[in-house]
Predict the 3D structure of the following.
Amino acid sequence: MARLADYFVVVAFSPGKRGNGDGQGQILQRFPEKDWEDNPFPQGIELFCQPSGWQLFRERNPPTFFIAVLTDINSERHYCACFTFWEAIDRSQLQNRLRKDEEEEEEEEEVAAPVQPAQLFAPKSLVLVSRLDHAEVFRNCLGLVYTIYVDGLSTSLETVIGNLLTCTIPIMGGSQPDTEDEGGARTISLGAGDRQVIQTPINDSLPISNCSVALLFRQLGITNVLCLFCAALTEHKILFLSSSYQRLTDACRALLALMFPLKYSFTYVPILPAQLLEVLSTPTPFIIGVSSAFQSETQELLDVIIADLDGGTVTVPECIHISLLPEPLLHRTREALSMVLDPGLEIADLAFPPSTISASSLKMQDKEIRAVFLRLFAHLLQGYRWCLHIIRIHPEPVIRFHKAAFLGQRGLVEDDFLPKVLEGMAFAGFVTERGPPYRETDVFDELVANEAQRMQADEGSKVRVLQHIKELAEQLYKNENPYPAVTMHKVQRPTEGSHLRLHQRPFPRLDEGTIQWIVDQATAKLQTAPPVVRAERKCMVPSGPPLGTLMERNGLVLANSARRLEVVRNCISYVFESKMLEAKRLLPAVLRAMKSRLARQCLTQELNLHVQQNRAVLDHLQFDFVVRMMNCCLQDCSAADEHGVAAALLPLVTAFCRKLSPGITQFAYSCVQEHLVWTNLQFWEAMFYGDVQNHIRALYLEGTEENHLAQAGEEGSQEDGSILEIAALQCRLWPTMSPEKQRELIQKEESTVFSQAIHYANRMSYLLLPLDTSKNRLPRSSGLGDAESVSNSFITNSIAGSVADSYDTESGFEDAETSDVANYVVRFINRFVDKVCTESGVTNEHLKGLHVMIPDIVQMHIETLDAVHRESKRLPPIQKPKLLRPSLLMGEESVMDGLRVFLMPDGREEGAGGSVGGPPLLPAEGAVFLTTYRIVFKGTPVDPLVGEQVVVRSFPVASLTKEEKITAQAPVDQFIPEGCAQLQLRSCTFQLLRIAFDEEVASESVEIFRKHLQKLRYPQHIADTFAFTVGQSIKPALQPKAKEKNPSLRTISKNLVKNAKRTIGRQYITRKKYTPPPWEHRGGSQQPFPEDNEDEISVSEEVDRSTLTPATLTIRPSDKMTMSNLVERACCRDYQRLGLGTLSNSLTRSKNEPFRISTVNRMYAICRSYPGLLIVPQTIQDNTIQRISRCYRQNRFPVVCWRNSRTKAALLRSGGLHGKGVAGLFKSPNTPAPGPSQADSTSLEQEKYLQAVINSMPHYVDVGGGRNTLSGFTSAHMSSSDSSEKRQPKLGSLMKQVMGGKDPEGPGPVSRGALGHRARVITLSSPKSLAVKGRLSPRGKWGSIRASGRTSSYALNMEVGSRLAGKELLGAPPNGSPSEASFLRQHRASLYIIGDKSQLRGVKPDPLQHWEVVPIEVFEARQVKTSFKKLMKACVPGNPSAEPSVAYLRSLEESEWLTQIHKILQISVLVVELLDTGSSVLVSLEDGWDITTQVVSLVQLLSDPYYRTLEGFRLLVEKEWLSFGHRFSHRGAQTLAGQGGGFTPIFLQFLDCVHQIHLQFPMEFEFSQYYLKFLSYHSVSNRFRTFLLDCDYERLELGLLYEEKGEGKGPQPFRSVWEYVERLNKKTPAFFNYMYAPEDSEVLRPYSNLSNLKVWDYYTQETLSEGPSYDWELAQGRPEPVEDPGPPDAGAPAPSRRRIVWPCYDNRRRVEPDAISRLLEELQNLEMELGQVPGRWKETWDKLKAFQRAEAQEDGGGGKGVSSALLMASSGLSHQRRSLGAYLQESGVGSSAINLSLDGDASSTSTPSSGKPGGRRSNTSTLYSQFQPAESENRSYEGILYKKGAFMKPWKPRWFVLDKTKHQLRYYDSRLDTECKGVIDLAEVESITPGTPTMGAPKMVDEKAFFDVKTTKRVYNFCAQDVLLAQQWIDRIQGCLSDA
């Protein structure tokens, strides 16, 4: 029984000191006056009666009622029911009271003077204090007291209050049958004729909520309440705001009711008084309610979640993250809540909704909501009893909860919510309260134990879920209202409006004596009454079903786990049966299977079977296998060991061992220490408690074992269940035991715990002390302080530390070497022992004893370990694979020898055998080598099942873009030791070396490797790069000013001009081949251009005097020759081919020549980055050029670089306009410039310069007879008619996309600019000349450049493009006659300047001038750099991702690389169009060396077929990229100075554009795609000197332009990439494109839409068998041909010719060559077999082409031969792409003959016709007759030499023939022999050295007649008949080599 009310208090208003209406509460009376012994009077009640402060009011308010909750120091809650009413207060009375309080009366009166209302009202509160929460009863009781007072009823107030204070009620319902009770409800009466029925709950552990929960959901909604619920459970601060106090109390009560069965244990104040608002800044969590009047004061609370009940909002501050329920629970809970709160939602969409919806009453809804949350907790905590550890049963049960196991079995380790809840205080209270196995149970226990299966089955069905919720709600409702039938109350209420009575007497003072007497009487009566015995309801708590879940850590159920487990079992049985080979085969699969939890558990079970009597002695190999499996198993466990795998392995690591020597045994624990789990204190605690529980179970089973032998198996299998049963039984028996028996049991339990503590101190020292304690480091790099448990860092734990230190010194062990490690371990174990022993109730004496023992245990173990470590070092090391050495290039030297490493997978699937299939080549084990040129990894795959493959990955050091140390995200692979250093090296050749160093590699070596790498990657000077240092041992950097080698710059420039004049006169050999046919011969042209007779460069005979200085004599003849070569090879060669310019310094100009070659820059004085010779207009003088150059960035003034041979339109290039030119001249006319006249004149000269360019165009000069330049071209998708109306829209649409125009009004007014004030800018104004008769053709028909979505920002106002394209001219007369030329000229500019939009903003248009500015937006170099970085990460990610293909496509798009390619191509095609329509173009972007170079080069490539040949492309790159100063060194960050700039691949981007064009026009290029990749690779490799330095000036300074070919005597490494290509091209057709069949003068117009662009396979391809295939000598290491073994046996099966080609491993081009390469190869082999000298492939190919052409002509002309050609003809496909057609004809002989046509010159018209049966034969024989040997022509030198045979063979005389043409040394048996015995290819000869006679050499021959020829394959020994002959042979061979 319990008192209904403990205290009754009357609290009144007491005025404050200031008298301004604010006062304070004052307790007038309280009853009883003495405190109850069991319940002292709570302090501060007066504050809570008026939470907003005590104030006087002008009017009487109606009475109010609310309940405040106070919590005392013992966490007991007191419910204070406050009933407040208002009483009138006399003003005089108020002032009298103030006078008493204060001495300064006058002052106070004056202060009080303003308050002068007629009457004031003061609040008075009646308060009931109780420990029970019966809100309605309290409201009725206080209401009754008020009614008696206000209505003046006859009943005595004292009696009523006395009765109220003495009323007792049962705590739980139904326990106290009463005469007045109906069915167990308690009826009370306070003696005023009233009657109330108090319903006490059936079970007081369940909270009582009335309607508060339902109200809370109505106020805030489902999502907000769930948010608050999760916040409360995860210990956040929650503040409720409302203007109603009762609502605040209800909301707080509701939140607590939702948390059941957890109890809130932090600050809980439903109504917080104003005076205590500072409580809100407390650091601990709370649930507090505050009146919304104080809302403004809560604004600055940064970490409080504020719920506004009146507004229905919940505000969560930014800094707070609320963990929500895990899915799918959150979704299910929301769904269930909406079913309860809004039953109409389900049927809202029905066509025929049911007429009635059964909505629950508010009280019932409240219980239904609580039922949803009860189910939620049952889900969350399902199976929690299986994770309880009972570590003591007597005297009190001590219970711990195994959090990690619970989370692991639920698969919620990574969850955000549940781990926080389990760590919280509420859950700790839950374990303490609900852990005991023998106690009273309630609805939650039954739900968790018995309803789990039902809840799982119900999940799918909403109806069944709702049914269950209703059942639970019924139970909850019944608990609160056990007897709903008897809720008849009879309580008087005051009359309506009674509080407004004017003359209401004040509340009377109560008689203390009367009330006290009533209380005393009742107390005495209670004492004499017999004590109430409460029926014992304790029972054994049911555990419910155990947690069985198949969830893996990632939540996936393993489908094939059974097969994996079988593999694990087999492997282990093989190990223990010593079948090591089988075990080795299965091991990788086992280690991979360890990712699965089931496999890890299976491993521990299997290993357990092989342990006898706690010991299993293994041999060395078995031990290694077991340890590897254990390590792999542990590395996939987290430190919390949530699946108990480490726990299961713990006994095994102390069981498996091997004998090292007599008396010394090594246990497995010394090899498995490198795992974080061993340093996790929580793991050790859980392990300890688990073991203690098992021992205590055994302790209590001992006595009953004899009776239960039969059931032993069952008990073992239900270990956890049975310990709870035993504990429940013991708890029940405990009170019946004798004290002796009780003491005995307590002692036994304590000694069990103590012995386990000693055992664990040993175990921990085993796993924490490293094998080599001398190293003074702990096993883990992270130290024993584990990140996961905050308190685990024992360095900071001063208490444990000090305890450990004190015991340490006592123990007397002070070993300097090991003290650190030992101390750490001792402290760690001490801390563990302190914690577990205190919790398990071990006495202090025992604990002290333990602390003394621990240092001794650790020290003993250290001594044992020393012996083990010493012995284990003597073991032979495990055989690691032999290091494979990479082959090196000639001149490449090793810098660092191989460091043993593992090459890890890097996100490219192919190598790791991902979804693509193929074997897992990576990870591979091998070594990384650093040479002067490359970083090379060479090794073999770690997975033994892959086979003996060699994996090579390498890249040039110079291409390294990023080197970083990485940490292993997850343990990468079972083969790779953990904790080893890892590096990631990224190269701009799209390679990535992600390497982990073997443990044998010292960290110092790794650092040395990194330093060397850094030094090689960024040398101090360019002369230290590999291209310069190759072949020489490292010398000091080159002296750039060596006298005789590098003559002075002045001399060079003069000679340069002189030599240019001399060489320009020579006829250019290949020119005829590439000159397009004359214009008259073309069909369909309306009017030919006037012939340009001055096609050759006319050389002026006048010699510049200044060049004839004596200084010229300092250049050696060889240098002069080199210079002439330079002039011939540089721009001049191309200028001559194009017919540009006159080389002259005099003023007498040749009038016919529009351009001349100027030597103004010969000293590189005007522009350092330009070549020495430049093409400028004939009329411009050199001194003018100097002034003009200042207007342009980097002085790069406009120069001509190409001219269209047909339209004579010129292509010019320059840098962007200078800041001075633009800002100074265009934009600020009013600024006083230092020399306005000078600026003006410069501007005029610039205009003059551009005008001179325009004048050079013939159709501009000769207007009268000029043709319409805009007609005569076919559009891509149209027939080849020449009508202009079909041509022009193409250009217009192009312009629209390339330009970006924003300003609809047109550019604003600007002053004169560098281009002159008359320059006209393309404006957006509408053209006025559209009123021409005739029809307008549809616009923009050229489909190739339709803007893609990415570049839509470049789309321009339609009219700009249309005017540019001459849209005004489209109204041509219907007959198609050409428009008037003058009309045309008016609207088409003769020169377009492509400029940067930002530079040209605001240039005034001027229709008088003949040039127009096209402003376009281009990207900057830094954007290219960023884009390239992203592209590299897309193609070579670095980390494996979950969805590689999706991630690749996403990153590719984000990189915007293809968008940039699109933009470049688009601009280039526009320029091509303009040039093709007869307008010249000046490309003037950025500094003129990046995007300008890209565009200019692409334009020439598209317009001129010559540049699409091997020779032409070389010339194009040399001219536009090298001579015109693209900054290769700067963009490639080649030296230390450029390190910060990073890598910007402008040249690579250009090559990518060429690749895109090549893909679209495969028959137009002489070179193959491989050639482009080759150049891409070597442009950054620094193997050749070609792409070093930034311009010719710098190359000149270093003397690079003056190197002789074949300078030294010995074989030289190639210095120029072109030489190398030339040489290689002679040997192999690798760079040749067999589909090459060009059409003369074809202009290419590629599509540039994103959808037409392909990602270059250069970025994604790799060949792991040999590394990059661009260093030909390294990649071509083919195996030597095997000797023919003779005829095979008749019975033997023919060997299979099938080969497996692996992606990313094999070089597919070599393994599976194309048909033509194979034919050429077979032809060569055939020649060899026939004893002929194999010819060069190019000669063979040319003969084939010639033969084919002749045959085709014959067939086409005579019509009698059989044509079965592979017709390469122009098909009318869009874009003039020509496809390869194949035509197969059955010949009369009956054999199907297919022949190859290798040229498309003649065959488009030839029609196949059936020929005579013999026709084909003769043709074929003719074909073969061409390859008959013509030896006599090719014998440069011949004679007899003795040759030493191969190994163990004698010397023999042979007839040797040196063939210069074929570059061979052949030998025959005799002079007359025609069958060649062998061939030595001179291309493979490395050196010729004097030889020495060997055994069996010819006698009587001088020693000096011997010489050796060393090739890449072997060394040949020769001997001539005498010394002279020998010398002759050596000279001849050397001469041949240097000529090659």
